[in-house]
Inverse folding.
């Protein structure tokens, strides 16, 4: 049964409300573990930043809320994905509900891998470079506020998690007919250029090594997305049963 536009908008409204509730509940729970989360976030800066500053009387409260929100957003990513994939499922296929679970698990695993990659491979080199750059430009001792460090770290971690969604995104766009493997292949040059720009923004550095920390994984993920797209495309049939021809 087809739903009207108003019905879809109403369903989307309730989806957003439920997702907000998941994130809010997870953030409240994360408040009880904020000290441990902050300790984990500060580990990559050990040996690079001697101490953090608190500039405003109420800044500590802001830091706790900010940290709890990021932790809640990460923890609630699984139920949010479940809501999202259930919402778009009619546009993708009519298969059993198990396919939704597989996609949710795949997406969440990719998200977790992206966060782990940034935490263990990117954060320390990025912080080290930025500290050296700041000291070189200002010729003075550099001190950071804990609030700015938490914002920078959380933003980088979340971007890493979202970047790792590229293969699944290519899979879904091919599934609904928005892209084809040949289209993704033909736009490889533009995609790589966009990745370079994005990597330069995320890791504000001038050396090739630091830039490649994001660029190389994104390129690999893009190529993986093309492989997934080809797998979907081969099984995508027209109503008459013919296989779509690649152009």
């Amino acid at each position: 049964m087809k739903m009207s536009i108003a019905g879809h908008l109403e369903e989307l409204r309730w989806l957003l409300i439920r997702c907000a509730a998941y994130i809010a509940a997870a953030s409240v729970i994360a408040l009880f573990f904020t000290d441990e989360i902050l300790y984990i976030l500060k580990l990559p800066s050990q040996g690079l930043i001697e101490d953090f500053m608190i500039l405003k009387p109420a800044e500590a409260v802001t830091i706790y809320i900010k940290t709890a929100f990021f932790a809640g957003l990460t923890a609630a990513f699984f139920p949010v994905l479940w809501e999202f994939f259930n919402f778009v499922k009619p546009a993708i296929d009519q298969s059993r509900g198990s396919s939704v679970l597989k996609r949710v698990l795949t997406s969440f695993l990719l998200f977790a891998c992206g966060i782990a990659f940034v935490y263990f491979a990117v954060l320390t080199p990025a912080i080290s470079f930025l500290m050296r750059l700041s000291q070189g430009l200002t010729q003075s001792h550099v001190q950071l506020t804990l609030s700015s460090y938490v914002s920078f770290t959380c933003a980088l971690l979340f971007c890493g998690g979202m970047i790792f969604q590229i293969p699944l995104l290519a899979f879904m766009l091919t599934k609904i007919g928005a892209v084809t493997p040949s289209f993704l292949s033909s736009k490889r040059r533009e995609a790589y250029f966009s990745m370079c720009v994005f990597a330069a923004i995320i890791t504000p550095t001038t050396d090739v090594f630091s830039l490649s920390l994001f660029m190389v994984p994104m390129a690999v993920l893009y190529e993986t997305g093309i492989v997934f797209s080809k797998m979907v495309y081969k099984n995508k049939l027209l109503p008459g049963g013919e296989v779509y021809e690649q152009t």
